[in-house]
From TrEMBL:
SUPFAM superfamilies: RmlC-like cupins
InterPro entries registered for this protein in UniProt: RmlC-like_jellyroll (IPR014710), RmlC_Cupin_sf (IPR011051), UGlyAH_Cupin_dom (IPR008579)
Gene3D superfamilies xrefs: Jelly Rolls
PANTHER family, sorted: CYTOPLASMIC PROTEIN (PTHR40943:SF1), CYTOPLASMIC PROTEIN-RELATED (PTHR40943)
Domain ((S)-ureidoglycine aminohydrolase cupin) ranges: 41-113
Protein's UniProt name: Cupin domain-containing protein
Amino acid sequence: MAARPLFLPVDTDHAAVEEGAPPADRVISGDPKFRTWNVEEAEGGLYAGVWEATPGKWRIQYDEWEFCHILSGVSVVTEEGGPVITLRNGDSFILRPGFRGTWEVIETTRKEYVIRV
């Protein structure tokens, strides 16, 4: 069995892509589609990779902790009862367990993520 490398680039060219969409009952507008390149899946519920979404708006609810860094595009995230946050290239943020609100992709958005469940 080959040893697992200890350095792992976050590289969409060498990771399998998964295609998806938010559940239909969560979509508010548009026809958003997702592409996800899950580069790392470690014991204990740790995931890292790149996610991309096309324009649309849907309800989100987080049970996990997630760090995100926007690579491209424009999105608007709004927490229930909270402010409207516009996200662009270079923005980083954390969504904590219990976060509820909406995610709206204005321009196709790509982000790097690290998720801990």
